[in-house]
Every structure is written in C-alpha cells, then in structure tokens.
Amino acid sequence: xxxxxxxxxxxxxxxxxxxxxxxxxxxxxxxxxxxxxxxxxxxxxxxxxxxxxxxxxxxxxxxxxxxxxxxxxxxxxxxxxxxxxxxxxxxxxxxxxxxxxxxxxxxxxxxxxxxxxxxxxxxxxxxxxxxxxxxxxxxxxxxxxxxxxxxxxxxxxxxxxxxx
Length: 164
Prior knowledge:
The protein is an alpha+beta fold. The protein folds into 2 domains: 17-78, no CATH class; 91-158, Arc Repressor Mutant, subunit A (Orthogonal Bundle), CATH 1.10.10. 51% of the residues lie in helices and 14% in strands. The chain has 6 helices and 5 strands; from the N terminus they run H-H-E-E-H-E-H-H-E-E-H. It has helices at 8-11, 23-40, 64-78, 94-101, 105-114, 130-158; strands at residues 46-51, 57-62, 91-93, 120-122, 125-129. The strands form 2 sheets. A 3-stranded antiparallel β-sheet has the order 3-5-4. A two-stranded antiparallel sheet has the order 1-2. A hairpin with a 5-residue loop joins strand 1 (46-51) and strand 2. The radius of gyration is 21 Å and the shape is extended.
C-alpha cells in the first residue's frame, strides 16, 4: 500500500482545533520560547535552520509577525494552556464568540440583536466573524478597565478589602 507524504495542508489540524500540550510539550515549549525570545523581538524577517528526521536540515525564512505568533503560542503552551489558530475572517458560533469575550451566550445574543456587532444567520443559527468580535473587544476593553479601576478605587475608599 502506498504511503502518503503529508502536504502542508493535510499535516495541519482543522482550523480552531485546540492543541492541548502534554508535559513533554510544555517543557519543550518553555525551552524553545527562551531561545526564540530574542528573535521574536526583531522587526525584520527571521531565518533559521530546521532539522528534520534523518538529520536533514532546511533553512527557512519567515516574517517577524509569524515569529511573534510562534513565540506567543509557545509561551501559552509552556503554561499548559491550549492553543488554537483562527484567521480573522473565521465565522464563530455565538458560544465561541461569547467565550472569547468572557460573557454568557445570552448576553452576546443581546449585543448582536442590539446591533453592537454584525452577524449573519445560517438557518436559525447566528454566526459572527472573529474580526468583529476582536473589534468589539478592542472598543469595549478600555471602558471595562476604567469601570474596574473605579470599583477598586471605591472599594479602597470604603475599606472593603480591595488593596491596590
């Protein structure tokens, strides 16, 4: 039976699949991120050599933005966090979008129905673009942060145990 050589497309998990690190992955990610840290800070393309099975080496050149993404993924994996990769034009379910925003799904549906974020319907299901979720989060995070700071300040003034 012929063996298939994986292509870059077939070697990848489906988009959005969470890659959950095991103990070996976490250790290797921690070591790798230390080595790649300086490269992740560079503003130009990065060239390095990859060694494969059988000692075959291949030099590759990647954009600095890809190196920063790799560094971020390794940092999360080193902490034991699952990592997934989604393009900005990915369509999300309302539950996925709610999870990203750290809100309940019913609250998110309310935001959609109020027009705070664009969406489309597929049958009776709502779909939201990741880029719209990220844009909403960017717009609302400063207000959330200000509200939390105000609550912390009030807690300090009232002496209810919130220390700065």
